[in-house]
Amino acid sequence: MKRSLTTLFLIATLVLLPFKLNSQEDVLFTSCLNQLKSPFIASGQPFKAFLTGDEVAEFHTTFFAGSLYRVVTSSHKEGTILFSVYDKERNLLFSNENYDSSSYWDFKIEGSVECIVEARLDTEKTTSGIALMMVGFKSLEQ
Question: What domain of life is recorded for the organism (predicted)?
């Protein structure tokens, strides 16, 4: 009897654990989408990484001329994601560290550019967590 209860508990844990993880990701995804409300259109490609300590997640994307962009981040705790945007030669274009760890950045691109976006945790606020980042855009051409 004790063995069957233990087995049942283990099976229930293994079955329900993915729902808990997906639920956390759903909350973060919704948080990002809430920051990308009209007039922005979400690109539909979430960038996600589980980070611990000083790990850095690196995402690659292309920003095209003629659009206004918004990069948004979300994590389990407000203001814990530090992100920086670089061109492909690693010239820093933006870092939210200079703006109180803001969870978003709006910008225009004069010409199309391939970029590297790095995300990491503010280790003074948290030591691990999921970093979710999304990009939205709005056409400047009317």
Answer: Bacteria
